[in-house]
């Protein structure tokens, strides 16, 4: 660094302090001071931290720890130039300056906070530290994993700039305070975290435990009760509540409310006999408290003793006939006993007393569901629950949908859309049900209508794609079934229904036409498939093969070459092309021979030259071109072609005779003798060719040396 960091003691280390409750505190504190005065900073930090764990409220130990971190951090920065370690120590010092103590202590350290923050920032600049909230949070987690809790606590508080990190940063700081023994600060940070994420059960449990440990029983009970309302049978919470209320009962043994609450806790824990004992005592202490009698009723209801439960509820209803809870629980007990009519009447009474009572509303709805048709149910809900009809019907439609009762769910979805036409989710669920019911046209109509209303809704767009895919799959399956049953015309009809057309559907149609021996139509649809999949070498081969079957060599050759140009490793296409080339060459050779036989040498020569351009070693083409050269007295050229033909096809022994004659004409008698002899030795027919060769051999005897 360009500038030395300032070493600062924020306060003089106290020489006097009140005697701590634990004997070991003084030993650790004195050692911490001794190590600090001897510049043994790491040892001093260890001792002051041990002292604080014994008495987290001791300000002298906190100041000693801060001074030790500041001194070591300055040493790391100025002497070792280890700015990373220095930064961690300054972070720890700031944690104990800003976050660990109470507000007055923070206020008294304002100058030290400013100077320590300045030193930390210089170190962070030296190591090019990324000060974004996300990186500070990641750094905090790493520091905590390394056991550097105080430095981690500082960085967690620097990540609060990102609203997505606030809850976890507060929670992590609370965890660190708890680890360091500062329960009051842990409770403060857990409370802040709960304010951000009130539905986090694990977080609220941690907060409740700290409150419990701090003997803030009423606040702890509030948290425990919230957790119980959101969970079932949480043994840890029930045990904590039991412990708290038993302690309260020891302090106030005649408190009816505490006694009744302890009974409710026992009931929640399933300890019914103990719960009844406490309820009985609570009722004895306060006979006018109807809640205790209702609790007794719920206990018997929970045990399945519905008649006894009803007796308990009736004891309340005699005095308070409009008590909502007693009426509701009695209705539930009657329903459990199968007395649906009486239960239904009581549910109606509950709703008249409490129109928003969801339990009674749902119970009545469940009752009429089982006795009404879908249309009757819709009418009933619209008449009796007009304000909430859409929500009730939609919820029922979803339940029916889950049960795969598609026709009923579709009917109710349609009714809900009439009531709330601006909810895109309902359209999507209706379309899904219609699709599952194989009514794809209706599903797409529903979604297209929704898309007009909500053009930018991704769920609708995705549903359209999904229904189209399902519809296509259905038609493909049907087409495949027809095809496998050899009902090719119906297979073609099903493939044609699929829009937009795909290469697969066109291939299916082409294959079906091929099986119907309709080659022209097969070629037409293979070409359409190739247009949709231009890089598919196999399709081009199929077209070539069909043209070959039609003996349309030119088109067959074009498509075979196209297949190979797409995929040079298409062996079938290459073999077909070779066959086509051979077939074409054979046809051309036949034409050339025919022209030769008709003494149309010029036309024959043109075709032979064309053949030999693509197939330079075609023995018959060479043979006939050689004979045309003979007619033109181009003996040397004839000899050249004859020799190539003979090399390609040694069985053409007559060529030896022709070469011998041409050498004879060129007066190259020695060569002529050689070929005459070869011809005479290999030729099997006793005809004029053999006689002439033998005659010339006799006449040219002098050249046979």
Instruction: State the helical fraction.
Output: over 70%
- How is the main sheet built? none
Look at the structure and give the mean pLDDT: 88
What is the alpha-carbon Rg in Å? Answer: 50 Å
Shape type: elongated
Low-pLDDT windows of residues:
8-21
Terminal residue distance? 108 Å
What class, by secondary structure content?
mainly alpha
Query: What is the count of DSSP helices, taking H or I runs of 4+ residues?
Result: 38
Number of strands: 0
User: Strand share of the residues?
Assistant: under 5%
Overview of the structural elements:
The protein has about 700 residues and is mainly α. It is about 75% helix and about 0% strand. It contains 38 helices and no strands. Helix 2 runs antiparallel to helix 3, helix 13 packs antiparallel against helix 14 and helix 32 runs parallel beside helix 34. The longest helix is centred in the C-terminal third of the chain and has 27 residues. It is elongated, with a radius of gyration of 50 Å.
């Amino acid at each position: 660094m360009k500038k030395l960091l300032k070493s600062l003691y924020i306060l003089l280390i106290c020489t006097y302090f009140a005697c701590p409750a634990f004997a070991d505190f003084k030993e650790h504190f004195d050692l911490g001071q001794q190590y600090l005065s001897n510049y043994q900073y790491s040892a001093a930090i260890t001792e002051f931290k041990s002292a604080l764990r014994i008495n987290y409220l001791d300000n002298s130990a906190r100041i000693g720890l801060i001074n030790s971190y500041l001194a070591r951090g300055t040493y790391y920065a100025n002497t070792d130039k280890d700015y990373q370690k220095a930064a961690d120590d300054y972070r720890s010092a700031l944690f104990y300056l800003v976050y660990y103590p109470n507000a007055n202590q923070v206020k008294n350290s304002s100058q030290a906070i400013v100077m320590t923050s300045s030193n930390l920032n210089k170190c962070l600049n030296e190591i090019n530290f990324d000060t974004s909230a996300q990186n500070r949070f990641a750094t905090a987690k790493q520091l905590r994993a390394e056991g550097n809790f105080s430095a981690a606590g500082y960085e967690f508080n620097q990540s609060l700039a990102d609203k997505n990190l606030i809850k976890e940063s507060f929670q992590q700081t609370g965890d660190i305070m708890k680890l360091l023994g500062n329960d009051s600060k842990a409770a403060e940070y857990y409370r802040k975290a709960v304010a951000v994420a009130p539905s986090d059960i694990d977080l609220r449990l941690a907060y409740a435990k700290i409150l419990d440990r701090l003997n803030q029983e009423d606040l702890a009970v509030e948290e425990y009760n919230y957790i119980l309302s959101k969970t079932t049978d949480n043994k840890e919470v029930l045990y904590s509540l039991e412990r708290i209320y038993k302690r309260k009962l020891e302090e106030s043994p005649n408190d009816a409310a505490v006694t009744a609450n302890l009974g409710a806790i026992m009931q929640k824990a399933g300890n019914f006999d103990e719960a009844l004992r406490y309820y009985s005592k609570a009722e004895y202490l306060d006979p006018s408290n109807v809640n205790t009698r209702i609790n007794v009723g719920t206990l018997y209801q929970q045990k399945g003793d519905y008649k006894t439960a009803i007796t308990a509820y009736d004891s309340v209803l005699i005095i308070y006939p409009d008590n909502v809870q007693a009426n509701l629980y009695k209705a539930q007990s009657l329903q459990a006993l199968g007395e649906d009519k009486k239960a239904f009447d009581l549910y109606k009474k509950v709703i008249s007393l409490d129109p928003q009572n969801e339990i009674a509303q749902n119970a009545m709805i469940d009752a009429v569901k089982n006795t009404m048709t879908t249309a009757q149910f819709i009418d009933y809900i619209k008449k009796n629950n007009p304000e909430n009809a859409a929500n009730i019907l939609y919820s029922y439609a979803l339940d029916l949908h889950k049960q795969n009762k598609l026709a009923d769910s579709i009917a109710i979805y349609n009714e809900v859309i009439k009531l709330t036409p601006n909810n895109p989710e309902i359209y999507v669920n209706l379309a899904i049900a219609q699709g599952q019911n194989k009514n794809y046209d209706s599903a797409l109509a529903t979604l297209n209508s929704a898309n007009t209303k909500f053009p930018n809704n991704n769920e609708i767009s995705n549903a359209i794609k999904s229904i189209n895919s399902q519809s296509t799959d259905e038609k493909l399956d049907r087409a495949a079934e027809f095809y496998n049953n050899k009902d090719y015309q119906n297979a073609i009809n099903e493939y044609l229904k699929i829009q937009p057309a795909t290469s697969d559907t066109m291939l299916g149609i082409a294959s079906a036409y091929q099986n119907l021996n309709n080659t022209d139509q097969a070629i037409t649809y293979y070409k359409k498939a190739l247009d949709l999949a231009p890089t598919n070498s196999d399709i081009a081969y199929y077209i070539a093969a069909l043209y070959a079957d039609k003996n349309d060599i030119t088109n067959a050759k074009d498509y075979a070459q196209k297949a190979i140009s797409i995929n040079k490793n298409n062996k079938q296409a290459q073999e077909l092309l070779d066959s086509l080339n051979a077939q074409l060459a054979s046809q051309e050779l036949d034409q050339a021979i025919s022209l030769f036989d008709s003494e149309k040498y010029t036309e024959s020569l043109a075709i032979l030259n064309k053949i030999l351009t693509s197939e330079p070693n075609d023995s018959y083409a060479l043979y006939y071109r050689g004979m045309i050269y003979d007619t033109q007295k181009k003996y040397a050229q004839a000899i050249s072609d004859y020799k190539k033909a003979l090399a390609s096809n040694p069985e053409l022994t007559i060529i030896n005779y022709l070469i011998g004659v041409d050498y004879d004409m060129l007066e190259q008698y020695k060569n002529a003798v050689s070929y005459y002899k070869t011809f005479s030795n290999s030729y099997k027919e006793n005809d004029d060719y053999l006689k002439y060769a033998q005659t010339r051999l006799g006449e040219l005897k002098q050249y046979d040396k």
